[in-house]
Amino acid sequence: MSSSELPIIGKISPEVFRDYVYPNLGEKRPEVLVGPQSGVDIAITRVAPGTVMATTTDPVFIVPAYGWERAAWFAVHILASDAATSGLPPSLMTVDLNLPLSITTAEFEKLWTAFAHTCQQLGIAVISGHTARYEGCEYPMVGGATVMSIGPEDRYITTSMAEKGDMILCTKGAAIEATGLFAATFPDYIRQHVGEDIWKQADALFDHMTVVEDARIAAEQGVRSDGVTAMHDATECGVIGGVYEIAEASNLGVVLQDDKIIVRPETQAICALTGIDPLISISEGTLLLTVKPHAVDKVMAALAARHIDVSVIGEMRHASEGMWRERHGKRIPLEHPRIDPFWAAFGRLAQGGQA
């Protein structure tokens, strides 16, 4: 399949974005400082002199099997995490819910109450939306939402703002989301094959599938020349895909040290069981940061003080040096994975098969 074709499943490739989306973005407006770009989580629009609004849009992802409170918490944090990578705290949200016919009034009340409570915890006001039940709408994708962050124009960052010489940091480790979702969705299967203790550790990662706090703490240490130059939520295609996207968006080279990426024991066990590579698997909750060398210790100390694991995993280089991965002393090209292996493995288990 050509890389300019739609993927079998999951997000489009950079080539599909380049060939079909990027040339067709409607009217060009001067207040749009950062528009849609492959690998860039947010847009930046000037809303007043010296003030910008960062926006991001994603599906509303609801899995009733997690319980309405847990499902709503995760849905909100997925939405808020990308906005938080702007370095500006998320504050506003619009929500479109296209719900399945099967949802009852009582279930909707539980879902929305938990959804709104999570927004309140994060300081986010829901300002508009649309709510309905329709034929053909099924969990988990039941609509979409846009999250907005407003702040000073000199305080925002995007994945396109990394610079040569910046160090790459990674919080929590690889495949956080893959680990947490497998444990929460298929508890009996995971317990049977890896044991109760590993399952408990994996299930506990569900509550860490967010980068809102990671991003807030890092940005508070300074942005741009003062510290953090770019942040990226390692969602589909994981740490490898996320680092590639930062380098591509910033037009830089990179050396990524695979051996420095944290892979938790529970993640290693579940990824081995399901036959997926943790370094290229979905990892909501893993924040990738590029940081000025002089600020690395300060950022790492601030994260560690809040019990957020973090490691230095590489360095941004000049574009002419290329993109590379180093592992066990060997260097190979850093390439975008294109397709996240999580979805196929998750689908096999969901259909009652073996991972």
Q: How many H/I helical runs?
A: 11
Strand order of the largest sheet: 8-10-7-11-9-12-13
Largest sheet: 7 strands, mixed
What shape does the CA trace take?
globular
Q: What is the helix content?
A: 25-40%
The total strand number stands at 13
Average of the residue pLDDT scores: 96
- Structural class label: alpha+beta
Order of helices and strands: HEEEHEHEEEHHHHEHEHEHEEEH
Measured by DSSP, the beta-strand proportion falls in 25-35%
Low-confidence stretches: none
What does this protein look like?
The structure is a single chain. By secondary structure, the chain is an alpha+beta fold. Helix content is 34%, strand content 25%. It contains eleven helices and 13 strands. Strands 8-10-7-11-9-12-13 form a seven-stranded mixed beta sheet, with helices on both faces. Strands 1-2-3-6-4-5 form a six-stranded mixed beta sheet, covered by helices on one side. Strand 2 (43-48) and strand 3 form a beta hairpin. Helix 4 packs across helix 6. The longest helix is centred in the first third of the chain and has 17 residues, at 68-84. The two termini are 24 Å apart.
A few lines on this structure:
With 355 residues, this protein is an alpha+beta fold.
